[in-house]
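Chapter review: from sequence to fold.
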Amino acid sequence: MSKQPYVLDASALLALLNREPGADRVAAVMAGARISAVNLIEVISKLIDKELDGPTVVAGLSELDIVVVDMDRPQAERAGLLRRETRAIGLSLGDRACLALAQESGSIALTGDRAWAALTLGIEVELIR
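The token string follows.
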């Protein structure tokens, strides 16, 4: 396992929370992992779509050993600039927020989205399944 920090995509954190395939990989890197506030919005939204109680969702997420990183202007610019290279494989704003944070911090982006394997951005990406 790498000593490099990890940045979780929403799909990775959801895999952990929903006990989906790949959850064990996410659990193994949770200590010190980070997530963009944009991806946290995605996670909360998906859980709310499952009819879970909002305050309970927020309370549960706050107990996780993960650092939530606010999106600042440099990250927003990076995410916007990644659009050209990622549009063809359908990456979302949240996907690009994760990649921008990983790029900025020299971290590994952890995702459950297999499309990311096709990326050649100089950003290390690891698939959970």
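Two observations follow directly from the output. Strands lie at 6-8, 33-36, 66-69, 108-111, 125-127. The two ends are 16 Å apart (CA to CA).
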